Amino acid sequence: MKTSNILIIAALTAALTQTVNAASFEVLGKEWYEKRAEGAEGTSAKPEPINKAIAYYEKAFEQQASAENAAGLLRCYYFKGSFVSMTADEQKAIFSKGKNFGEAAVKQFPSSAPVKYWLVAHMGKWAKTYGVISAAREGAADKIKKLSEEIIQLDPNYNDAGGYEILGLVHFHSPNIPFILTWPSNKSALENLYKAAQFAPTIANNLCLAQALAKAGKKDLASALLKKTLTMQPRAEKLVEDRSGLKRVAEVLKNI
Fold first, then answer.
1. What is residue 6's predicted lDDT score, i.e. its pLDDT?
2. Which of 6, 38, 188, 225 has its CA 20 to 30 A from that of 87?
3. Which domains are seen in the chain, by residue range?
4. How far apart (Å, rounded) are the C-alpha atoms in residues 49 and 240?
């Protein structure tokens, strides 16, 4: 066999092996992400399952930089920062890491609704740790609004109508700052959160809508929605997330 043919076969074999390894790591990352609630106590998740998911997704993305692996890694970072017990500095670090990785991933995969969604989720958490007003002055709210609108265009149903939910929340939480941030609107918040709850009446979407209703002075409607939501059971596939949502529902209802 000619040397050139041997080199071609070796190169093809190496490429195939790399693809297989990347696929295997992605499968393992997904499997461990689906086990993220194992051993959870209430709304607090154990770090081991999600850390394993992160490790496998990092290997998968290193070997094959795909939109699927990028989104998988971003959602792992988000879950860890949101539901694993850690210090404020550790939490800020992981959301910053997710934000930075997500911004690079969006440039690489501009047509991926999942990548944009998980970037926006990180940006929202990052804005809270950084300070909402300071983040708004840095342009974070404008970026979140734009990305949310793009998510809706790409896939309005992704992650329980997540594009509508985040667009509603950015209107709900963003301050109106003259000459800097003039578009936040309670009306737009309600419109988008109604759509999210209509498409996907989940615990989280109902909670967000109820908060917007209460802010708009519709406390009776908000209370009724919260009471209805408290009768819902956490989903097995989102056990910790829904437990956390129900806890927050009870807190908001108590304060209305």
1. 47
2. 38
3. 1-120 (1.25.40.10)
4. 13
Q: Where are the alpha helices (DSSP H) in the chain?
A: 3-34, 47-63, 67-83, 88-108, 113-130, 132-137, 140-154, 158-173, 186-199, 203-215, 219-229, 239-255
Distance, CA of 160 to chain centre: 11
Contact 129, 92 (CB under 8 A): yes
Give SS3 for 185.
coil
Q: What is the DSSP letter of 218?
A: -
Question: How many other CB atoms sit within 10 Å of the CB of residue 30?
Answer: 18
Structure tokens at 156: 């309005």
Provide the token pair at 42.
């209430």
d(CA 123, CA 78): 10
- Sequence-ordered list of residues with C-beta below 8 angstroms from that of 81, at least 6 positions apart, any chain: 91, 94, 95, 98, 122, 125
Locate tokens 């920062």: which residue? 81
Query: What is the C-alpha end-to-end distance of the chain, expressed in Å?
Result: 80
Q: Residue 98: helix, strand or coil by DSSP? A: helix
pLDDT in the model for residue 179 = 63
pLDDT score at 137: 64
Name the burial class of residue 133, with classes exposed (0-12), middle (13-18) and buried (19+) by CB atoms within 10 angstroms of its CB.
middle
**How far apart, in whole angstroms, are the C-alpha atoms of residue 149 and residue 156?**
9
141 or 250, which is more confident:
250
Beta carbons of 123 and 164 less than 8 angstroms apart = no
Q: What is the dihedral of CA 197, 43, 48, 39, to 10 degrees?
A: -110
Q: Is the pTM for the entire model greater than 0.70?
A: yes
Residue range 171-187: average pLDDT? 83
Average pLDDT, the chain: 90
Distance of CA 137 to the CA centre of its chain: 22
